[in-house]
Amino acid sequence: MKNKLILALDFGGTKLAAAIAEAGDPRFLAKTYAFSPPQKSAKTDRDIILHLAADVLQGRKPEAIGVSFGGPVAPSKGITLLSHHVPGWENFPLQEWLFEHFGVPVVVENDANAAAFGEWRYGAGRGTRYLLYVTVSTGIGGGILINGEIYRGADNLAGEIGHMTIDPNGPFCACGKRGCLETFASGPAIARRARELLAAFPKEGTILEKYAATNSQELSAKDISLAARSGDPLAIRVLEEAGRALGFGLAQAVSLLNPERIVLGGGVTKAGEFFLRSVHKTVRAYAMPSARVELVVAELGDDAPLWGAVALAEKLLYK
What we know:
It is built from ten helices and twelve strands. It is of the alpha/beta class. The strands form three sheets. Strands 3-2-1-4-7 form a five-stranded mixed sheet. Strands 10-9-8-11-12 form a five-stranded mixed sheet, with helices on one face.
């Protein structure tokens, strides 16, 4: 299987990346990335990705291309349906466009599904038959693997755990509903809750207040985690609340899907022990007692979508 060169491309909301690998080899031969410009568009993203691809290929021709795209796609047609972060991707034939440029087979997949497939093939999901991957970052998404196949659902919407309603009276979500899991446990939701508690109980969050005062940007989950490690009670409360919300959502997924392993990825999972301990405790409290599910942290980090693109291209070559 080796020696077949694969080009992996990742179209994120703020960052674009390209890498090359040989099929079956769990190492990148080359990898590079670039951030989208302030006035980003689908056109600028495509121009940048071609430069990144040329940079890693150095004149070589891949035998297949795998693509992770940050938004809903129609995988069977290789069409991007839209991006929530970059305008101009509506109903774009990305598979066809890449084939015209490179002349090799192309597979296009949603980034959460790609990351799930990457963790199943090369990371923390290895050896499983029933896997749920959940990424917790600016938003919350997921992918479901059953016997090594991505389960997409009737409308390619399977795995959208971030838009599971956990409180019908909760905050409004970007999707238009109220009380989605994403409004309680994503990075922006955690920062919002921290600001709310700081405003209500300023004397209890003196350490957290210092991070808020010195940070020119928005508070991040990392800031809150650092404050929690220093003993700030409000920061600890924020992380434990977010962990409970995520754990509650995962417990419902366990009861519905009965996965043998849940892999947690995304930047928020780096928030530390207070968050992760709360997640584990809540899953155990609300999932069916007989479920033998294992919760683990992702191994591939930010490269999971790229490795998923590699794995999907491998499958394309050897199906």
